[in-house]
Amino acid sequence: MNIEIRDAALQARIQRQLQATGAASVEEVLLRLLETQEEQDRGLAENREAINAKIRRGIEQLDRGEGIPEDQLDAHLAKLKAEPE
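The structure corresponding to this sequence follows.
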């Protein structure tokens, strides 16, 4: 299979990825990118129910008026980031 890439910006992105990863070829870059995408897709599929449950819980909280007002959101997120895991 031959693939022709006509978009100069995409060619540049692939070239940067080639250099950044130390890949030996464009094929290797594409293989790594596909593997990464497939891994992400598997993770989403495996966790779909948990993700959907969290989304539903969040919507229910918003419906009950338990959301964080927009003017307080940045401070709230900063506080969460500062808390140890």
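The chain has a mean pLDDT of 93.
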